[in-house]
Structures are given as structure tokens and as C-alpha cells.
Write a structure and sequence with these properties.
Blueprint: H1 8-11, H2 18-31, E1 34-37, E2 40-43, H3 45-51, E3 66-74, E4 80-84, E5 94-95, E6 98-100, H4 108-120, E7 128-139, E8 142-155, E9 165-168, H5 182-189, E10 196-203
Parallel strand pairs: 3-8, 7-10
Antiparallel strand pairs: 1-2, 3-6, 4-5, 4-9, 7-8
Length: 209
């Protein structure tokens, strides 16, 4: 974690049997966490990914913010599309269609286009990156989720309603059991600034099993 190259003998923990140490080092080599070079041993691709998540002070994997794209979609009647969440956290609440960025998404825009297709079957190329939001959801003093939200907006009329997809009038959003900050994000997107950034902190008082 704190050096580029390490030699075999330098990495061996004190009082550790050589055969046992060699066995575990070989397992790390095979798994791609460590690789051997002419100069010594260094981190492989998986090792670099793993160490990037570690706290330098505690050498423990840190809980890190997630990054999502969220789609604010309007139809010609002014309705905004809501989708029911099918899993925790905040299961059965309503949100705008969204999903996490993947490591193989080449761009944030590509991630939003993929989510439009995966969630809605929509091939939508004209997405507007409306803004970004930093959203922290709290339960008293505990952080439940911390999310960077890339908000994309577009118009569409051909998405049919189902039990889990509804077109809602913006002034009636309060009638729905919404996921945290959904109404605030949708409202902010409707300002239609060239680009916006907002930070939201929400106290989540719903009782979830």
C-alpha cells in the first residue's frame, strides 16, 4: 500500500513459516492481487482496486459513496415518470428511474443511456445532463446512504404505465410515498438551468423491515 515494489523477504510476516507464506503469496499471484516483476512484487489490477478502498489509518475497507444516474422523464402532458423501488433500501417507495454506474461504462452519459434501456427498454440518445446532486440520507446520527446523483432529463411519450411505472403530475408528487429527495431533485431539474449542483441531507423517518 505504501511502496511501489517489495521483495519476497521484505513482505514475509515475522515468525511465519516460509512454506505457509509462499502458499498464500502464490494464491494472491494467481488471483491477480499481486504480480511479480524483475524488480520484485507489486500490486496487480485486483490489488490496486482493493487498496483504493482501504483506509490508510485503519487498513480496513471503507464504506464509500455510490454513484448513480437518475432519469427525469417528462411526457407531453407534463407528467413525470416514477418507478417503484423493488429492493432495499427504501423498498416500495417511488423514485425516478435510476441505477448505479458500472466500471465498464465508458462515460456518465453512456451509463444513463444504458439505464434508460435496462430499466425502460428505451433507446434514448438525446439525454441532457441536467445537474449533479450529493445526497446523504440519515437516520438520527447514522448515515444510511451517501450518493452522488448524475441527473439526466429527456422527454418521451411512449413509455406505458404498469403497476411499477406511473406518470405523475409534478404538483401531485406529494401524494406518493417517495424515496429520499426525489421531489426536491425533480423540482430542481424543472428549473432548466444549463447545469446545477445541489446538496441534500434527508432524515429518513420511515419504518422499514
Amino acid at each position: 500500500m505504501h511502496q511501489k515494489i517489495a521483495r519476497f523477504r521484505d513482505m514475509r510476516p515475522p515468525k511465519t513459516d516460509t512454506n505457509l507464506y509462499s502458499y498464500h503469496l502464490n494464491q494472491l499471484l494467481k488471483a491477480g492481487f499481486v504480480k511479480k516483476t524483475d524488480a520484485g512484487y507489486t500490486l496487480g489490477t485486483k490489488g490496486l482496486v482493493y487498496v483504493d478502498r482501504l483506509s490508510s489509518e485503519k487498513t480496513l475497507v471503507r464504506q464509500q459513496p455510490k454513484i448513480i444516474t437518475l432519469l427525469v422523464i417528462q411526457n407531453s402532458d407534463g407528467g413525470v415518470l416514477l418507478q417503484r423501488r423493488a429492493k432495499q433500501p427504501f423498498i416500495d417507495t417511488w423514485t425516478a428511474p435510476s441505477g448505479k454506474l458500472h466500471m465498464d461504462d465508458p462515460t456518465v452519459l453512456a451509463a444513463a443511456q444504458r439505464e434508460a434501456y435496462d430499466k425502460l427498454g428505451v433507446t434514448q440518445r438525446e439525454l441532457r445532463h441536467a445537474g449533479d446532486c450529493y445526497l446523504r440520507v440519515m437516520d438520527s446520527d447514522d448515515t444510511i446512504t451517501l450518493t452522488l446523483v448524475h441527473v439526466f432529463a429527456f422527454e418521451r411519450d411512449d413509455i406505458p404505465m404498469t403497476d411499477d411505472l406511473v406518470w405523475a403530475k409534478p404538483h401531485k408528487l406529494h401524494r406518493y410515498d417517495l424515496a429520499p429527495a426525489v421531489e426536491q431533485i425533480i423540482t430542481r431539474t424543472f428549473f432548466r438551468d444549463p447545469f446545477f449542483f445541489e446538496e441534500f441531507q434527508v432524515d429518513w423517518n420511515h419504518s422499514t423491515p
